[in-house]
Amino acid sequence: YGVTLPGWKKTKLTYRIVNYTPDMSKEDVDKAIQKALKVWSTVTPLIFTRIHVGIADIMIAFGTKAHGHCPRYFDGPLGVLAHAFPPGNGFGGDAHFDEDEDWTTGSAGFNLFLVAAHEFGHALGLSHSNDQRALMFPNYAYVNPSEFPLSPDDISAIQSIYGSRPNAPDKRPATPTSPKTCDSQISFDAVTTLRREVIFLKGRHLWRVYPDNSEVELELISTFWPTLPPGIQAAYENPKDQILFFKGNKFWVISGYQVLLGYPKNISTLGFPKGVKKIDAVVCNKNTGKTDFFIGDKYWRYDENSQSIETGYPRRTADDFPGISQRVDAVFQHKGFFYFFHGSKQREFNPTARKVIREMKSNSWFNC
Amino acid sequence: NGLPAQPEKYNNEEDVKLVQDYLNKFYTVEPDPNQLGWRKNAESTAEKLQKMQQFFGLKVTGKLDSETLEIMKKPRCGVPDVGL
User: Fold this and answer.
1) Which of A13, A40, A90, A130 can bridge A57 by disulfide, Cβ–Cβ 3.0-4.6 Å?
2) Using alpha carbons only, what angle is made at residue A131 by residues A15 and B22, rounded to the nearest 5 degrees?
């Protein structure tokens, strides 16, 4: 990434939409602009307020060819779509859009939300990135507007100027918001290995457990993966050193600490029928390269090599995992054994002997 | 500032003009937009071309090739790729 310092010396910024494009309704333009600013306020302390008259920090206008006193000109359809100026007085922070383009809310023409989010990056002090996955890459690339458009490169860039969003919960006293690690009734939404760690997820938090040296760290999920939603319902580590997170009918793939581009995707892309609305729990058996997805009282087996669901599934969980008869909240594999979580209890299962070895508290890994 | 390129391929006026415009717009250090200053054109076209090829991860030859031309034809942001 690149920055044009020093950026704005304040975090409360005003913006004004000076005129509109005839390509879209005014409401759609307002929404696109507001959503594009929200992209940046989500990951920084910046606050944007709209004004309707006078000079705003960020003046937003549509024009063609030589427009107003702007030192840069537009070039007709295609080519240059828009431009913006780094923070400062006069033109500083302003964003101009070429009216000779076809502005839309979708994938046709040029998506105003996406282009505006890029231009506002400039208006906040970013220059172009040569990371092709970055929103600040110079060339236009359409991505589904329902996905969060910032790449880790973009987030590092903007936070190098303004810092990260103050995590309100950190300001509040830890007790009411952070879950109690040693609460004997604690249950988990999802559990997965991550290389030598085991990650327990619940709401907006996660615990990182190092089974080998019994260390436990409680963190916010957003600290590691700002674009992952809270309330992840299932997660597992696949043989390609990636972590897949599931919520509802969507899933994200993390490689290292980066959310891969193009996610979230629908779980139907893994081969699940439309009727499957969510995943309760999932684990990949490192010894067989097969991944078991638990949904209600059944499970589906997915072959990581062929990247497809095996025929003959779903099967009843209790038939193949005797003793695991209740709905599975979460499951992970450690040293060959599976650990099935249901409410405040977990069961250690030996897949070779196909039997439950013992039952423990769900938080037995936290050395309470 | 003749355009360095394989002579046989990129003779057509349009491409030559497109490349010149592109390099002038995005690979020429721009003065502060609030001071209507003169543009420095210190670098040669080949040097600007090399910078552009480097930025986009292309083979850095300073000579125009089809891949470089293709990137130049893509719709993009009007902010220069080199510092203001």
Assistant:
1) A13
2) 75
A128 in B contact zone (CB under 8 Å): yes
Q: Which structure tokens are listed for B70?
A: 């293709």
Q: Does A138 touch chain B (CB under 8 A)?
A: yes
Q: What is the identity of the amino acid at A66? A: A
3-state SS, one letter per residue, for A161-230: HHCCCCCHHHHCCHHHHCCCCCCCCCCCCEEEEECCEEEEEECCEEEEEECCCCEEEEEEHHHHCCCCCC
Which amino acid is located at B5 in the chain? A
- Three-state SS at B51: helix
What does the pLDDT read at residue A176? 36
> Which candidate from A71, A101, A128 shows the least CB-CB separation from B33?
A71
**Do residue B34 and residue A128 have CB atoms under 8 angstroms apart?**
no
Chain A, 41 to 100: residues with Cβ < 8 Å from chain B are 70-72, 74-75, 78-86, 88-92, 98
Rounded to two decimals, the ipTM of the complex is: 0.81
- Which position among A99, A119, A147, A304 bears the catalytic label? A119
* Mean pLDDT, each 10-residue run in order, chain B (84 residues): 49 83 86 52 80 91 90 95 75
How far apart are the C-alpha atoms of A55 and A110, rounded to whole Å?
Answer: 27
Which tokens is A104 given?
A: 């839309």
d(CA A331, CA A229): 20
Phi first, then psi: give them for residue A248, nearest 5 degrees. 60, -140
Q: Which of the residues B74, B76, B82 would you substitute to probe the A interface, choosing the one with the greatest number of A C-beta atoms within 10 Å?
A: B76
Q: What is the distance in angstroms between the Cα of A90 and the nearest Cα belonging to chain B?
A: 6
DSSP readout, A309-357?
A: EPTT--EEHHHHSTT--SPPSEEEEETTEEEEEETTEEEEEETTTTEEE
Cβ burial A145-169 (10 Å sphere, 16+ → b, else e) = beebbbbbbbbebbeebbeeeeeee
Which pLDDT score is estimated for B30?
Answer: 62
Worst-scoring range by mean pLDDT, A276-285, A309-318, B44-53? Answer: B44-53
Q: How far is CA A331 from the centre of its chain?
A: 22
> What confidence score (pLDDT) does residue B53 get?
94
Q: How far is B74 from chain A (nearest CA, A)?
A: 6
State both tokens at A312: 């003959």
